[in-house]
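User: I'm new to structure prediction. If I give you an amino acid sequence, what do you actually give back? Let's try with this one:
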Amino acid sequence: MLTIILLILNFTLFILGFIFIILDLKNYTENRYSNLKGNELPKRSSKSLLFSLVALLLAVVVSLAYY
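Assistant: Good question. You get back a string of structure tokens that encode the predicted 3D arrangement of the chain. For your 67 residues, that looks like this:
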């Protein structure tokens, strides 16, 4: 039962990562000519990276349960 809950949480985190990437790309195309700092990750991209890394870590933990 715990594995199913973790798999649902993992799937949700991956979907959130993709949603934030899409929103960031949409925001970039809308604000293409605004003055952006070149060395910083946009806020949505950093959240997407965080969600993706947590989902990847959670996928490894869930896969250990099957070992």
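You can read the tokens as a compact description of the fold. Here is one thing that stands out. The two ends are 16 Å apart (CA to CA).
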